[in-house]
Specification:
Elements: H1 3-13, H2 18-24, H3 42-52, H4 56-61, H5 68-71, E1 73-75, H6 77-84, H7 96-111, H8 113-123, E2 125-127
């Protein structure tokens, strides 16, 4: 699997497409497509990895780090909500009411035993110190 394919797969796992990843990474919407035939700039690849919640090593090699505990990403429900916005018919924007309802639903599930186990098993993530709500 190539770097591009791993980015595409990681994006799909978040419910995103390549253009969404590029935009969230602060790049032009078609920038990542160039990586099909060109070696990506390390700085941009690092930003994409951060956006996707994976390591640069994973994008380059496809292998998870042996120190998986250090690679665990913190879930931020606000980022999850941004990713679900495309499911609406409002040009990708959630209303405040939509956000509040989804935030409560996601938070409740992720704080359950089953939610925490599935989160760690399938995404190598855990709730942040604020229960995933993004508050500092």
């Amino acid at each position: 699997m190539t770097v591009f394919e791993r980015i595409k797969e990681s994006a799909k796992n978040l419910g995103w497409n390549i253009q969404t990843v590029a935009k969230k990474s602060g790049m032009g919407v078609n920038s990542i497509y160039k990586w099909k035939s060109q070696t990506p700039n390390l700085e941009k690849l690092t930003q994409v990895a951060k956006t996707l919640g994976v390591s640069v090593d994973y994008l380059l090699t496809g292998e998870k780090s042996s120190s998986a505990k250090n690679d665990i990403q913190k879930v931020n429900i606000e980022k999850l909500l941004d990713g679900t916005a495309m499911l609406t018919d409002r040009d990708g924007e959630l209303t405040d009411s939509d956000r509040a309802a989804l935030r409560a639903l996601i938070s409740t599930y992720l704080q359950s035993t089953e939610g925490r186990e599935r989160l760690k098993k399938y995404s190598n993530m855990e709730l942040d110190d604020n229960g995933g709500n993004g508050d500092d």
